[in-house]
Amino acid sequence: MWIALSGLPGGGKTTLARALAARLGGVHLRIDTIAPALVRDGLPTADLGGRSYAVARALAGDLLAGGFTVVADAAGPLSATRTAWHDLARAAGVVCCDVEVVCCDRREHRRRLRPPSPTSPATSYRPGATSKRGSSSRG
Q1: What is residue 115's DSSP assignment?
Q2: Which of 43, 75, 99, 136 has CA atoms 20 to 30 A from the CA of 36?
Q3: How far apart are CA 16 and CA 99, in angstroms?
Q4: Residue 5: enclosing H or E segment and its boundaries?
Q5: β-strand pairing of 96-100 with 27-30
Q6: pLDDT by residue (tens digit) across 5-17?
Q7: Can you give the pTM of this predicted structure?
């Protein structure tokens, strides 16, 4: 199964994706982990969007072929991205579920998007930051 979570930054995609992957014994695939790795390796930021998704699709294809459930966490609910994800799922012979994640509490959403203060614990939310625990989870 391929579960594609999309939505605005700070909406709760990563939290939900980690929980789903753990519950289903799957793998959490996070665009916000792939993109910084590509930049650190020298990819210009202008080329980042499409390349991050291409890497995610390639990884997901291998994981799906290996029988893993993949829970993808990406901001962009673009039609082209969704079509590519559905094509990938179809090629792998699995179901693709699109889920748009929305934080309905505006105050909480704004709080999540604020930069952390110097006194914030290390585990506080930072948009675009990678998890210290890693981006993948196997149950």
Answers
A1: P
A2: 99
A3: 10
A4: strand 2-6
A5: unpaired
A6: 988 888 889 999 9
A7: 0.73
